[in-house]
Amino acid sequence: MTARRQRISHGCLGLTLIELMVTIAVVAILAAMAAPSFTSLLGSYRVDAAAQELKTSLDLARSEAIKIGPVNPDPDAHVTEVCPSANGTSCTSNSTNWAPGWLIWSDADGSSGMSASEIIQVAGAANSSLTFTSSAASTVKFKSLGQIKDTAPNFTISHAASSTTRYVCLSASGSSKVQSNSC
Known about the structure:
This protein is an alpha+beta fold and 183 residues long. Helices cover 33% and strands 22% of the residues.
């Protein structure tokens, strides 16, 4: 009985080189098949996150404008603005590209010019795989009652590899929403 046990235990000591190579090949093939769908999924998450970040910034700007509203009864006298910004300290004029980032500022002193103390929030650059544009080369200005001062641009955020696109839509009342269909 002892000789028989030794013979059985010697046959199950490990893997052969061929078995190991076949296992590695199968894992490599499965990983190669999964990589494109993972890239697409990751791109979709990036688009959703960027759209929600912009919506949150727009909601914050509207909230700040409303918060200052009772201080100044003239709704056109005070604005809170969201604008594209490449450097985080000033607005980029006449740009439809919001991928470098944006900032929120409130003209608290009524000077119509931005100072460092008036900047509320700075959003950094979007992921380089995203296309991030507005429908018009303009900023978003909120009056002290929360409405849009001028015509509001709508935003398109897309990722080419995943074919995912989200739209951030603004209404004249200042409310924003993220949707899959164009505004």
